[in-house]
Task: structure prediction
Amino acid sequence: MTASPALGTHPPATSDLLRSVFRRHAAGVAVITAAHGSRPVGFTATSLTSVSAEPPMISFGIGTGASSWPAVSEAAHVGVHILGEHQQELAATFARSGADRFGAPTSWREGPEGVPVLDGALAWLVCRVVTRVPAGDHRLVIAEVVTGDPAGEGRPLLYHQGRFNALRD
Result:
């Protein structure tokens, strides 16, 4: 084992340090959607987590400065879409500020509880928002699963080192 330098020689905690460390963490890619009046909204998330099996619950983080935050802050239900490696462009579209996320070529429909459901995802859920917990400049949204479909085809899309990647065997 290689000896590491004393803890005192490492940089202090900053947002840059956190981002640098998490670039090394491979994460699955999801798109979260919600209805905001008659307008659908959505964003790419890598912070999706399974929280509880009984009842089935998930969580995700969203920045309070994100364009989707006003809708998510009021939404009773959200859609959660697990993206496949064939959906890199879709992930990039929903991550891009100012993009027309629901315009062509995005294919979607109104799903249960009026939530936008994206076509072609590996799996999707519609969830009832239970709470929004303040967490620095973000909110941690905790939601209970209402319905979903796990039957999509393909392999998962990953995010690593600032890029979307395919899973390797």
